[in-house]
Specification:
By secondary structure, the protein is mainly α. The protein is globular. It is built from seven helices and no strands.
């Protein structure tokens, strides 16, 4: 099986998958939920992948529109900042959920299931 020829995209996805499983946090003894370094690392990942998403934006949008209930749930988490006891924390986490959801759409559009398993 041959993966896409885009080595940077494959490495980026591989790093995100490792990072999301906490592989790097184990070495640095990070508190993933509250450590600002961890949050900054995820922000960097989201920014880098935002650039990678550009050529795939139409396919990602089409995939997202096919999953209306998922979009409703993500929108609901973003709206929940309006009545939250800690709006800044709620917004940060809801925004992270939205970014992770878009990243999931990108993975679904960009790679086949076999390719994702290989990565």
């Amino acid at each position: 099986m041959q993966l896409s020829k885009s080595i940077p995209a494959q490495l980026g996805v591989f790093a995100v998958l490792l990072f999301s499983m906490g592989a790097f946090a184990a070495f640095e003894n990070l508190d993933q939920a509250g450590d600002s370094r961890f949050q900054l690392a995820w922000a960097g990942i989201y920014v880098l992948f935002a650039v990678v998403f550009i050529p795939w934006r139409r396919a990602i949008l089409q995939a997202a529109l096919e999953q209306k209930w998922l979009l409703v749930l993500v929108a609901w988490t973003l709206l929940s900042t309006l009545w939250s006891a800690d709006p800044s924390l709620t917004f940060r986490r809801a925004f992270a959920l939205a970014c992770t959801t878009v990243l999931g759409f990108y993975l679904g559009v960009r790679f086949t299931q076999r390719q994702l398993l290989h990565l």
